[in-house]
Automatic annotation (TrEMBL):
The keyword Signal applies. It comes from Effrenium voratum. This is Cytochrome P450. The keyword Signal applies. It comes from the Eukaryota. Residues 1-25 form the signal peptide. Keywords: Signal.
Length: 479
C-alpha cells in the first residue's frame, strides 16, 4: 500500500518539524531562535511560552526527560537574549495567575536571584502550594496540619522558624555533621546492575524525569536517613502513587476520588513513621513546644516527600538521576573524577544540573518598580504581584562562574572544585553561607534554605558509590 495524500501530508509536516527543530541543535540557530521568540512574540504570552518550550525539545535527551522542555534548565535562554550582561537581570516567565495573558518577571542573574533568596523578609503566598490554590482543592490532598508548608511561609514568620527548629532538634540526619550516618541499603530486590541498566536505557529513552528504580533507591534511603524507618516494597509503591496522584493537581487535575486516595496513602506512611523512633521523638518534642505532635509529623512527611524526595518530579530523586546519568554518560571520565572528590563532584552536579524546584516560586513583590529587560523593553512590576527566580540560570552567571574572561562556556563546564564552587543557589541560599549557620534552623547569613541541603548530598554520595559498584562488576563480567 502506497502513501496516500493525507499520509504524504503528515510525512511532509513531520519532516518540516524535524528540520526546523533539528536546526536548533546548531548553536547559532538556537541563539537566533531564542532572540527571535523573545523579540517578536512578546505581545502574545501564550505563543511566547509555546515557542520557548518547543525550542527546548532537542534538549530533552540532554536534560533527561519531558521536564527538559521547561524554560528553567537552559542558561542559553538567558545568554542569547543578553540578560546576563544587559538590563536588570530579569527574564519573562509564565505567570501562574494567568498564563494566557501575562508574565511575571523571573530573576536570572546571580546577583538578582541571591537578592531574593537572601532577603530576610521575603514574602510568600500562603494561599498557594507551588501553583495550587489550596483552599479550593478537594478534601484529602492536604491533610490536617499539613498547611501551611515551609514553602508557603514568609521568611521572617516565627512559625517558620519554630517548625524548622523542631526539625533541627529531632532529626539528626539533616545536620551538617551528624554523629551517626546510616549506611546505604538497596531497597528489597534491587541490585546495582539493575540500576546501571535502568540509567543506560534512560540515556536513550528519557520517558520519565526520574525512573521508578531511582525513585525507589532514593526514597528508601531518604526515609532511612530522615525518618529512621525502612519502607517495604508495598510502602514504596504507595509513596510513589501518593506523589503522582497528588502532583496532578498542579496541572489542574484534582478530583474527589484523587483526594480520597491521597488521604489513604498518606495515612499508611504516617502510621509507619509514627511507630518509629524518629516519629515518637518528633511528636513528643512538638508537644513539649506547645504544638500538636500528630499534625507536625504529617506536615514533615508531606514536606519531605514532596520537596525532599519529589517522586517523578523535582526533588532529591531528580538530583540523583542527574548524577547517575552523568556517571553513565562517560564512565571512563566521570567515575575516576567522582572517586577523587565525591563531595565536590556532587556539588558541581547540583550547580550545573539542579534537581529541585526552579527557584523560590512564586514570591511576593515588595514594591512597585519599573524594570528594563535586556531587550530594552520597560516593564512595571507592582507590589503584591508574583515574581520568580531561576536558580540554575544564576548558577551559570558568567559574572560569578565564568572565570577570568567571564565566559558562558567556562560557566557551563563541569569542573568539581572550581572557584566559587559553593556560591550556587540551588539550595536557595548560597551553599557557602548555609554552612556558616550553627544548625539547619537557619541564621542571618542564610535566612532561608533547603532543609535537605546536607542529607541530600550524603545520600547522593552513597548512591553514587553503589552505582559505580554496578558499573565495575559489569566490567568484570565482560572481561
Ligand atoms: C539552632 O541555632 C540557633 C542559633 O544559635 C539556636 O537559637 C537554636 O536553639 C538552635 N536549635 C537547636 C535545635 O539546636
Amino acid at each position: 500500500m502506497g502513501c496516500g495524500c493525507f499520509c504524504r501530508l503528515v510525512v511532509l509536516l513531520l519532516t518540516a518539524l524535524a528540520l526546523l527543530f533539528g536546526c536548533l541543535c546548531v548553536p547559532q540557530v538556537e541563539r537566533a531562535y531564542i532572540k527571535f521568540v523573545d523579540t517578536y512574540t512578546y505581545g502574545v504570552p501564550l505563543a511566547h511560552l509555546a515557542l520557548v518550550v518547543l525550542g527546548q525539545v532537542p534538549r530533552i535527551w540532554q536534560v533527561g526527560g519531558p521536564l527538559g522542555v521547561g524554560p528553567v534548565w537552559n542558561p542559553w535562554l538567558v545568554d542569547a537574549t543578553d540578560a546576563y550582561s544587559k538590563g536588570d537581570g530579569l527574564m519573562l516567565f509564565p505567570n501562574p495567575d494567568n498564563i494566557a495573558s501575562s508574565y511575571m518577571l523571573a530573576r536570572v542573574t546571580h546577583e538578582k536571584v541571591r537578592e531574593v533568596h537572601h532577603n530576610p523578609t521575603a514574602k510568600r503566598d500562603i494561599s498557594k502550594f507551588i501553583s495550587v490554590e489550596t483552599a479550593t482543592s478537594p478534601p484529602g490532598y492536604f491533610a490536617d496540619g499539613v498547611l501551611p508548608t515551609l514553602l508557603q511561609l514568609n521568611t521572617d514568620d516565627p512559625k517558620r522558624y519554630a517548625h524548622r527548629d523542631l526539625l533541627s532538634a529531632t532529626m539528626p540526619s539533616i545536620a551538617q555533621s551528624p554523629d551517626h550516618v546510616p549506611g546505604f541499603q538497596a531497597p528489597p530486590g534491587v541490585s546495582a546492575q539493575d540500576l546501571v541498566r535502568d540509567i543506560s536505557l534512560h540515556l536513550w529513552l528519557p520517558l520519565k524525569m526520574v525512573t521508578n528504580l531511582v525513585q525507589d533507591v532514593f526514597a528508601f534511603n531518604f526515609f532511612r536517613h530522615a525518618f529512621e524507618v525502612d519502607l517495604s516494597h508495598e510502602e514504596l509503591q504507595m509513596l510513589k502513587e501518593w506523589l503522582s496522584v497528588h502532583s496532578r493537581i498542579i496541572v489542574g487535575l484534582s478530583s474527589i476520588s484523587g483526594g480520597k486516595r491521597c488521604a489513604e496513602l498518606a495515612k499508611v506512611l504516617e502510621d509507619k513513621v509514627a511507630a518509629g523512633a524518629f516519629g515518637q521523638r518528633l511528636m513528643k518534642e512538638a508537644e513539649r513546644r506547645g504544638m500538636v505532635g500528630a499534625d507536625r509529623l504529617r506536615k514533615v512527611i508531606f514536606e519531605f516527600s514532596f520537596a525532599g524526595f519529589g517522586g517523578d518530579g523535582p526533588g532529591g530523586g531528580l538530583a540523583t538521576m542527574k548524577l547517575l546519568r552523568l556517571l553513565q554518560s562517560k564512565p571512563e571520565k566521570y567515575v575516576p573524577m567522582f572517586k577523587k572528590d565525591p563531595e565536590a563532584f556532587i556539588l558541581e552536579v547540583i550547580r550545573t544540573r539542579g534537581g529541585g524546584g526552579a527557584g523560590m516560586n512564586p514570591w511576593i513583590v515588595e514594591s512597585t518598580q519599573t524594570h528594563t529587560l535586556s531587550t530594552g523593553r520597560v516593564v512595571t512590576e507592582t507590589a503584591g504581584s508574583h515574581g520568580a527566580t531561576i536558580a540554575l540560570h544564576a548558577n551559570h552567571d558568567p559574572a560569578v562562574f565564568g572565570g577570568p574572561k567571564r565566559d558562558l562556556d567556562y560557566a557551563l563546564a563541569f569542573m568539581p572544585g572550581r572557584e566559587n564552587a559553593d556560591r550556587f543557589l540551588s539550595f536557595v541560599a548560597e551553599y557557602g553561607e548555609i554552612k556558616k549557620c550553627p544548625n539547619v534552623t537557619g541564621c542571618a547569613e542564610a535566612p532561608r534554605f533547603c532543609m535537605g541541603t546536607f542529607v541530600l548530598q550524603r545520600i547522593m554520595k552513597q548512591i553514587g558509590f553503589f552505582y559505580i559498584e554496578g558499573l565495575e562488576s559489569q566490567g568484570r563480567q565482560e572481561m
